Amino acid sequence: MSSLLRSSFDAPPPPRPKPQPISESDESSSDSSAASVDTVRPNEHEQVAGPSHWTNYFDQELWLDKDLADGATARYHAYITPPTNPAKDPLFVCHHGAGSSGLSFAIFAKELRALLPNAGVLSLDARGHGSSILNATRQEASPDYSLETLTTDALNILQSTQAHFTWPQLPPLVFIGHSLGGAVVTNLTTVHGKLLAPTLIGYAVLDVVEGSALEALAHMKSYLAQRPSLFDSLSSAIDWHTRTRTLRSATSAEVSVPSLLTQTPSGRFAWRTDLNSTAPWWEAWFAGMSARFLGGRGAKLLVLAGTDRLDKELMIGQMQGKFQLEVIPEAGHFVQEDVPARLASLAVEFYRRNDRSQLVLPPKVSDMIAKGMKV
Amino acid sequence: MSDLDKHIEQLRACRPIPEAQVREVCYKARELLIEEGNVVGVDAPVTICGDIHGQFHDLMELFRVGGDVPDTNYLFMGDFVDRGFYSLESFLLLLCLKVRYPDRITLIRGNHESRQITTVYGFYDECLRKYGSANVWRYCCEVFDYLALGALVSGAATDLEPTDSSFAAEPSQTQNSMSEDQAEWEIEVLNSTGQVMNRYPRVRTQNEFSQLSNPPSSPGQSPSRSGPPGSGASSSAKGSSGNSGGAVLCVHGGLSPLIDSIDKIRLLDRKQEVPHEGAMCDLLWSDPDEIDGWGLSPRGAGFLFGADIVKCFNHKNDLSLICRAHQLVMEGFKEMFDSSIVTVWSAPNYCYRCGNVAAILELGEDGSNAGYSARGNGDANRSQGVLQPKDQERALGPGRRYRVFEAAPQDSRGMPAKKPVADYFL
Questions:
Q1: Per UniProt, what is one GO molecular function of this protein (chain A) (predicted)?
Q2: CA gap B259, A129 in Å, rounded
Q3: Residue A109: how many other CB atoms lie within 10 Å
Q4: Which of A246, A308, A321 lies at the smallest CB-CB distance from B298?
Q5: Burial class of residue B217, CB neighbours in 10 A (0-12, 13-18, 19+)
Q6: Catalytic sites of A, residue numbers
Q7: Do A315 and B298 touch (CB under 8 A)?
Q8: CB contact, 8 Å: B333 with chain A?
Q9: What's the CA gap between A162 and A168, in Å, rounded?
Q10: Which of A319, A323, A359, A366 to mutate to test binding with chain B, by most B CBs within 10 Å of its CB?
C-alpha cells in the first residue's frame, strides 16, 4: 500500500471533531450509488476549540461519500459557510494547491465574509489532502492525481454540496484556485463550462502560470528532498513554515499547517500527502493551462505573488485586455495565507464587478434611437 | 551645446542622466505640460505612436523608421514605461525632447503612467536599481500627473501622396485593378525600409468597400468584419466610412460612457493619480470590441465599447477617426468599425518575447486644399442620427500611412538577470 493510502487511514489530527471513523472493512456500507452525506457540526460539549480551529472560519464541515467510476469510493471533505440566500448570494469555491489543504483558505474565508456577509465559501480538501479520503476497493489501485480526476472530484464535491443543502440550482459561483488548484478550477470551468454556465461568474487563479510552473517543476524534486520529512511537534512544523517563509503569516500557519500533517505511531508528525508520488502528473497539471485560462467562460482574474511571471501566451492575452491581472509584491506563493485581507477585497471587487444580476451598462445607440432620443 | 542637448545625446546612448538633472528636466517638463489642456491641439503632419514600454532600442528603431525629432512631428499615446528594461532612458529621452522641442513632440498619458502600476510592472524597481533611491521615480510620477489625456489632430490630408518607392512584393490583384493615375490613395502600409507592402484606394460606397481585400498578412479573413479586437487575427485596413471632414482624436485607451463630447474631456481635473474608475480611468483603460453598446472590460478597469458608440461619438464630435493604443496587435496596427477607430502598437516583440511587429501612423498635411476644412461643432443637420447615414455625408477620413517595423537587435548588456524561478510551484 502506498504511503498515501496508509496516511489516509490515520485519524485526523487533534483538535478536530471526530468524523465517522472509516475502517478498511467499510466497503459494504458504501455500495449505494447516491452520494450520502454526513455533516458534522461543532459540538460545544466535545471540546473547546482554540483560536486556530476551523470552526472560527467556517460554519460546517462536510463529509461527502461518492462512488467513483473505477469502483473506488471517495469520502470527500470540505469546509463550508453556505451563502445566506443561495438563489442570489455568491458561493466562492476554493481549491488549494498540491500538498496543502482546504484550511489554506480559512482566514481568507473569514476576511471575505467580513466584506460580503451573505457570501458563502466552500473550501475543499483534494483527494489525499487534508481529510479527504480515497478508499480504493482494489488494493493494487494506485492513487490517481491526474488533472481530469481532480477536476471530477471538485465537480463531485460541488454537486454533492448542492444536493446536501437541497439547492434547486447552484448559487452564483466564483472559483478560486491556488497553484495546482488554479489548474483544476481552470480545467473545471473549461471542461464543464456548459454545466456551470448558468451561474458561473468567473474564476481566479492564484500564483500559477503555465510557463513558469513548468520551469519550476525541474527544481521541485530537490526542493521536496530538502524539506524535513518529520516534525517533533505541530508547533515545530508551524515554526518551520514561517521560518522558511513558506508561509509568511504565523496566524495562518497555525490554522493551516496542522491539517497538512499526520501523527505517526512514534508520535511525530509526517506529511499527510506524499508529494513525490504525485510527480508523474506534475507536467500534465500545467501543460496547456494558459490557453484554457484565456479560453474559458466567465470573468478571469490572475493574482500573482512577488513579481509578474507571465508566459508569452498570457503576456499577449494581458496586453490585449483579456483578463484582469493583479500582482501583489509583498505576498509569497501562498497568497491567500500571506495577504488574506487583500485577496478577499480583490475577490469581492471581482465578484461585484462581474455580477451580471446587478450590472447596469449605459444604453446602446440603437436603443436610444428606438426610444426617439437624439444621438 | 546646451545642457539639454547633452542630456539628449547621453540618453540616446542609453545612459541615464544624473538625478539632479532628472529633477531639473522634470521640473521644466511640468511647467510646459501644465500649460497644455487635457486635449492638446496638434496640427498635421504628425506621426502617431502607441505603447513603448521601456523598449529603448526599439524606440531608436522607431525614430530611424519615422524620422528624428524635430524633423518629424511626433505624438506618443502613452505607456512609455514598465515591462521593458529601459523605461527610465526611454521616458527621460522623450521628456528631454519634449522640453527641447515642445511643439514637435506631444506626449499623452497611458494607464502605465501611474504610481500604482509602475510599482508593480517594473519602472519603480528600475529607478531603484539605477539610482539607489526612489527619488527619480517620484519626479517622473509627478510629471505623469501633468500629461494630457488626449490630443486632437487637425489639418490632416484626406489623400496620401503616394511614396515613390517600390512594392516590397508583387502587389495583389485588387491593387492592380485601379490604374495608378486615377487612384486616390487612402491607406499605405510600408515596411521599415520604406518599401510599400500594401496600398488601398479611397472607397466611396459600401459596395466598393466590401470588395477590398485585406492585407496578405491575414489570409482568409472576412473582409466585412475583422476578428475580435486584439485577437491578432488581422490588421485589417479598410476603406473609411467615417464622417466627412473631421479631426482625429488620439487617446491611450478609448471612450467612456461618461464622455459624450470632447469638451467633457476638457473639463476633467487630470492632475492626479489615475483613478480606479470614472471618465479619466476609462479614457486610459477602455478597449473597442465587436459588441453593441457598452460592455464590461475583462481588464477590471474601463469599458468595452462597440461600433455604434464609436460612430456616434465621431459623428457628434466631428471626428473622422479615433486613434488609440493600449492593446497589443500582432501586426502593429488594426483598423476597426469601418475605419472609424484604429489601434496603433509601437513595441515590437513586446516584452522581448511576444513576436509581434510594431507600427506608427503618419498623417499628412492638407496642403492642396483638396481635403476638408474643419467644421464647427454645431449640431446642424445632425438630427437624423448616424445609423441612417446619408450619402452626401459619406466620408473622407485622413490618408493614413502605416510604417511597420520589427524589433531592433537586442543589446544584452545592462539587461538584468533573468527573474529567479519560483522555488515552489505545486
A1: protein methylesterase activity
A2: 52
A3: 28
A4: A321
A5: middle
A6: 179, 207, 333
A7: no
A8: no
A9: 8
A10: A319
Residues A324, B326: C-beta atoms closer than 8 Å: no
Letter for the amino acid at B2? S
Spatial distance between the Cα atoms of B312 and B319, rounded to a whole number of angstroms = 10
Contact assessment for residue B145 and residue B275, using Cβ atoms and an 8 Å cutoff: no
Interchain proximity A308–B121, CB inside 8 Å: yes
B contact test, residue of A221, A316, A359 with most B CBs within 10 A: A316
Neighbours of A31 (CB within 10 A): 8
Task: Output the CA torsion A86→A89→A95→A101 (10° steps).
Answer: -80
Backbone φ, ψ for residue A321 (5° rounding) = 75, 35
Strand partners, A63: A38, A77
Q: Is B308 on the interface with A (CB under 8 A)?
A: yes
Find which of A178, A276, A297, A320 to mutate to test the B interface (most B CBs within 10 Å of its CB). Answer: A320
Q: Tell if the CB–CB gap between B294 and A364 is shorter than 8 Å.
A: yes
From B291's Cα to the closest Cα of chain A, the distance in A is 10
> In terms of C-beta density within 10 A (0-12 exposed, 13-18 middle, 19 or more buried), how is residue B123 classed?
buried
DSSP secondary structure code for residue A13 in this structure: P
Beta bridge partners of B46: B363
Q: Is A226 helix (H, G, I), strand (E, B) or coil?
A: helix
The DSSP 8-state label assigned to residue A219 in this structure reads H
Residue of A nearest to B309 (CA): A365
Whether residues B120 and A320 touch (CB distance < 8 A) is answered with: no
Q: pTM score, two decimals?
A: 0.85
Structural domains in chain B plus CATH codes: 23-374+384-416 (3.60.21.10)
Say which CATH superfamily domain A24-370 falls into. Answer: Alpha/Beta hydrolase fold, catalytic domain (3.40.50.1820)
Chain A nearest-CA residue for B229? A320
Q: Sort out which chain B residues have CB atoms less than 8 A from A179's CB and list them.
A: 425-426
Q: In this complex, do B306 and A364 lie within 8 Å of one another by their Cβ atoms? A: yes
